[in-house]
Every structure is written in C-alpha cells, then in structure tokens.
Amino acid sequence: MKEQFLDRMKRYLGDEYEAYEQTLQEGMYRGIRINPCKSDIEEIKALSLCEMTPSKICSDSFYIPEDVAHLGNHPAHLAGLFYMQEPSASSAVEVLDVQAGDWVLDLCAAPGGKSTQIGAKLHHTGFLVSNEIDAKRAVILMSNMERMGFGECMITNTRPEILCEEMMGCFDKVLVDAPCSGEGMFKKHSKAMDDWSEEHVCACATRQQLILDSAYEALKQDGIMVYSTCTYSMEENEETVYAFLEKHPDMELIDAGVNFGRVGFPYKNLDHTLVRRILPMDQGEGHFIAKMKKHGPQQSVKLKELTNDGLPSFVNDFLSNQINEALPHHIVLNDKVYLKNTPFIKLKKTRILRQGILAGEIIKNRIEPHQHFYTASLLQNRYQHIYDMSEEECHAFLEGNQLSVSGYKGFIALSWHHHPIGFGKGDGMVIKNKYPKGMRIR
Question: What is the pTM for the complete model shown?
Fold first, then answer.
C-alpha cells in the first residue's frame, strides 16, 4: 500500500513531492508546550532541560532535539509544568481561539494534548468537557489532565451523539480533532504506512461526518467549531468539510486567522484558502484545520446542578487543615469528594469519569487524599502544610521511597522547586510515600 499512498501524495503536492519524500527519511519533529498555569518560559529555560527553539504556531510551544531522552521522568514534567507535544499539534487550539469564560467541548480528546492546552487558556474560568469514546484512552486523558493540574473540567467516556444531545447548545467553542487515518504520523508509527489503505481512509471520512453532526448539536448559535486531523487525505479533510457545510447551511467556513502552515487543496467550490494545512516542509508532521461559525438558531438544554447535603465533619476538618481557602462547591459521589469553583453539572446518560478536583475517598469515617488534590494548579498556593524537596529527595520520592524528614505529622504536600508534585504522610520522624505506584519512576 506504500506506493498507492505515495502516488496520492504526488498528485496532491506536484512539484513539492520530492521535498515531501525527503522528509520521510528524516526524524520527526519533537517538542514541549509550557503550562502557563504552573510555569513560564523563563523558569523552564533555567532548568536547562535541553535546547529549545520557539515555534511560530503557539507561543508556549518549543521544538526540542530529536535525540533528547527521559524528559517524561523529569520532575518538571511529572509536576505538570510542561506537556510533551510536537508543536504543529498545538495548531487546532490556536485556531479555536479560546477566551476566558468560554464553555469548550473537546469531543475526541485523548490523550489530552489539546485539552490541556485548552485548560491552560481558560485558566480556571469557564468550563471544559473533554470526551473520549475509548475507555482505556479516556483514563490516559484523565491522568494527563490531573498531572497538568486542571479542575474546572469534566472528563467523559461517552459516544459523541449521546453527550452532544445531553449538552445541546451549551458550548461557545467545540473542537473535533477527529480520529483519522493518521498519515501525518507515519514517521512515528512506521507500521501504519504498511497498513494504510484507501478503504480505511474512506471509513474514517464516514465516521468523521457522524462526529461532526453530533458536534453541530452541541454548539451554541454564533459558536465556533474547529475541525482538525493529522492526515493528508482530501477525503478526510476538504471533502469532509465540504460535505458538512452542504448538510448544515447555517455553518460558515471562516478564516482560520493564523499565518502558519499553508492553504488547503482546491476542492469544488470550497474556499480552500480559508483552511490551513501543515506539512513536514512547514515544520510539522501533517495537520489540517478548518474553522467554522454557526449562524442559525440552536435549541439549548437547561442543565441541572448536582448537589448534596454537604460534607461530613471529618472531611471539612481535613480540608480546613490542608488548604487555607476552600472552593465554593463540593460534592460526594460514591464516597469520593470533589471540589470545584463553579456548580457541578448533572447528566443522566453521559458517563462521567471525573468532574472537578478529586480531593480524596471516604474510608471508614476518614478521608484518604488523592493525587489530584495535590497537583491541582488552582490549589497550589493554598496548602497549609508543604515541604519543598531537594533534588535528591525528589528523586527518592518519585521512586517510591519515604523521606527521612522529621517534624511533620499528617498529610503534607510535597513540592519540587516549590511546585507541588505529590504528597506524603508524616509521623513526626519520616514522611511516608503516597505517590501513586503506577506513576513511580524506575
């Protein structure tokens, strides 16, 4: 199938094909994106992680050398100061143009690169719903959102049509980073090119149309939808957008409003100059982005708030002991305590994995804290008991060892360079390790 794919690229690229073919022999672009809710470029540069070259796509994104290794185990990554993401993958959220206070839906969100980027732009305002239909990938999404410290969000694991019906007309912005044939990822997953077929491309295009139809229902009147893929095929890009616009005449294709990448490929009467493509020759691994605005009236549901009778006294005691300023909203569900700045939302058909910050679990009239409580960026300046670890102590902690630190009793936030990274429990003589076993470095 490799030759069939390359023949298609020759037709798409014409005189630029040889330049594209050359990129297949080169390494893939790599990068990191700084989390402005926890850090900034000056701090990250001071860590001397590696050479960093600014990206023109996103001000928080930087290219890093291909041979850099082990950044995933660096304390700055584990504390959520940055996300490892190839810079062109940040393009769709830049086009979405998220503003403070927006309600945003990321409909196909795993593993979480774009949701964590949206969360950073919202900066604890508005509301983000991050959905993933695959249960295992949804857990990875939730883990990344937790590590990066976001709490004004809801992680769901539901079919798009169910979620979008329950939250019809609720969102100012909707991102559909659609499942695709992944032609832009061939260098990352070399076997993918061998498995490529036109039948798979067409199957992806059919699925993308269905997802877009669902996303349309969730979007408010005058709301913005961004459709993106990491593939080259016109069937999944220009043709999919054209078919969607034909079906929904109240949707208007508008200028992406950015100057990175290049215009799309001509298709029928679609204004291909309004969409953006990023090819390997443009310092990216293959992305397509289209921005659309909804003009027609949209019926919207009235969401119900989720409430209960309040927290048990021992939970209130724990919270007042741990943080110096409580969040205004809290809920207990299945013996788990959640905190949030804004009211909790009640949904009946949608499977919610998490809403708000998971503070901990109630076990026999006590609360066992959760890692999320100590990584939430909204709480990072509120901990009453915090110990800033040395480099050696942090490494030992991340490996799962206890800390030989006396003078602390009870649960305590543990930080690195004053960034909370986990927690422990002191007995006066040592701090016992509470870092999740599945996250410990080896």
Answer: 0.97
